[in-house]
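Following up on my earlier thread - several people asked me to post the actual chain instead of describing it. Fair enough. Here it is, all 273 residues.
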Amino acid sequence: MKNKTSVLQKFYIFLIFFFLYAPIGVMMLFSFNSDASTYTFGGFSLHWYEEMFKDAAAMNSLKNSVVLAIVTAVVSTVLGTMAAVGLFNSRRKLYKRAMMTATNIPMMNPEIVTGIAMMLLFVFAGTIVSKSDVLGFWTLLIAHVTFALPYVILNIMPKLKQFDMHVYEAAVDLGCKPVKAFFKVVLPEIMTGIITGCVMSFTLSLDDFIISYFTNGPSFQTLPIYIFSMTKKRVKPDMFALSTLMFVVILVLLILMNVAQSRAEKKGKSGEK
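Reply from S.P.:
Thanks for posting it. Predicted structure:
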């Protein structure tokens, strides 16, 4: 009975991974297609990778997406770390619960609701300052930081709870200033959570479409919006090549992040012994 259950579990997991990654595998395969067809494979070729780098509009959109994702990751990580430390040190339980509930709202709220609400907010703010072209890089940055910030906070909070605050108090008692004690004692212990939150905010910003669609302007176009505009005509295999490169880069980042986390956990366990 147990063997049958184990086989069914493995088959169920296989189906999940198959339906998740089979479309990505097909996309990666057709990125090496020698023909322009998106349903007939004519042979292996790097032609569409060459065409991808020749597409100035696609490269500019990719550059915009990467710049926006990096800035979003940096701002979200700094603000998220400060917010997590402040909430962790708060002695008022009701305030802490209320703030954590408010932190979870951007994750639970449908993206289309968040996107429309932020677009209306930015347009309203633009009318106050008598500016019509208010949507652009800065509105995108604010919107992306808004939905990426909770992920940073929720990745750092467990690390703070695992940390022994007596070590920090001992450092302060021995003459270390509170700020210096935080950077020397607390920060190294929660660094894995900070890195995880930073990588998550980067990847979330890089592939976001719905919120970006409502908060971007004509002066700043991200890659997901550029690809969406192409679907009204015909998506060429050079977009398959670009998507493949993005997938590989994000996959490598996630693998490196997991390796760093596992090494940090092993180091922590060996230190406890």
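The mean pLDDT is 84. That should answer part of your original question.
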